[in-house]
Amino acid sequence: MRIWAQVGKQTMGAPATVGHVCAAAMAGVNVDGAGVTIMAGSTARDVLHTSDRVAADLEEWQLTYGQGPCVDAFTRGGPVIAPDLRSSESLTRWPVFSPAALNSGARAVFALPLQIGAIRLGVLDLYRARPGAMSSYELADALAFADATAMMVIDDAAGLQPDTAELAWQRDDPTAHQVQVHQATGMIIAQLGASAEIAFARLRAYAYAHDRRLGDVARDVVERRLRFEPDSLRESMERDEV
């Protein structure tokens, strides 16, 4: 009841959304940002909400590199706590994600699975710009906020339009539109004659190899500036002459 009361304070009388739960979590457990990713296996992932650009970067890096606290939390079904991304443990565990996350402005990440019984829906990621673990009380509340988020998702919160508090950069930044990743994956399936898993792996590998955002690479595929060749590991950039 206390957790839902904090969510209610964020709504200001409006219908509650996942964004309100994230805002309540940020205030309640003393973190700087939050992100929610819905996952259904290795290729089906959607970023449902991010509180700011750093949170969006964290979700994108984990999607692009296939590693990070979010990935581990979903795979293992339990919270994954990274109190200091500069630690040798974090750098060893996530050798690509950790430097990228640090460069984006995050220093600590707390990944909490969204789970109803044995069903895993996704992950609530919380970050701090400073190092440090959560207290036992903060972690307990964070897990309760994750449960509240899972309930919102189950109640079709994922189908709601972004609320009016959505930040302008999320409307203007084309890499924030995750639908392009799915569109690009579908185009690569046709280009390679391969499975969705292979197509997505090639897309992600290209982004990683060229040090680019996954959303930017996906947009190039959708707009036909990038084509994947089925008979070679080579990808060629092609200008659309139409």
Shape: globular
The major pleated sheet works out as: 5 strands, antiparallel
Number of strands: 7
By secondary-structure content and strand pairing, the structural class works out as alpha+beta
**Span of the ends, CA to CA:** 58 Å
Average pLDDT metric = 81
Strand order of the largest sheet: 2-1-5-4-3
Which regions contain 5 or more consecutive residues with pLDDT less than 50? Answer: 157-176, 232-242
Order of helices and strands: HHEEHHEHHEEHHHHHEE
Instruction: Provide the helix percentage.
Output: 40-55%
Rg, rounded, reads 18 Å
How many distinct helices? 11
Beta-strand portion reads 15-25%
List the helices and strands and how they pair.
Blueprint: H1 2-11, H2 18-28, E1 33-39, E2 45-50, H3 53-65, H4 69-76, E3 80-82, H5 88-93, H6 97-104, E4 108-116, E5 119-128, H7 136-154, H8 168-172, H9 179-192, H10 196-209, H11 214-222, E6 226-228, E7 235-237
Antiparallel strand pairs: 1-2, 1-5, 3-4, 4-5, 6-7
Helix pairs in contact: 1-2, 2-7, 3-6, 9-10, 9-11, 10-11
